[in-house]
Amino acid sequence: MGKGLPGAADGSGESLGQGGLRVGRHFVIPAEELRWRFSGSGGPGGQHANTANTRVDLTFDVTRSDVLGPRQRARLLEHLGQIVRVVASDERSQARNRELALQRLAARLSEALRQDRPRLPTRPTQASRQRRRRDKEARSALKLERRPPIGET
Fold first, then answer.
1. 21-113 has which CATH code?
2. Residue 125 and residue 4: Cα distance in Å, rounded?
3. How many alpha carbons lie under 13 Å from residue 65 in its C-beta half-sphere?
4. Using CA atoms, how far apart are residues 105 and 99, in angstroms rounded to an integer?
């Protein structure tokens, strides 16, 4: 059911062609590993919405995938779980909802695989310490002005 489905025509890199769904530079998911389900989307649209199965439910099983390396699989399992599921029912066209679902799946997988560089702790600069001290003194002076004079209490 997943073979030969049209992909994104906008050149975003998330397309389902002969090779499958490209996820950034990381890997390509074969079309056979994607599971598609279609249903009525509901909401406004009149007769068309009641008869057409335009809602797209796309799932990817991380545990059964053959294209993932051990580190990629572990990272996806940690961040997204065993089954990654995206739903698209934004458009009235099933083809457009397929494209949206592919884009969303690729974005979620790419985001989960992205590794942030660890922050290296640094010491405050002399200028930042001086600014902090100046701000504290200004705040203190403002609060002192709000107090009643000593003899009036």
1. 3.30.160.20
2. 58
3. 29
4. 10
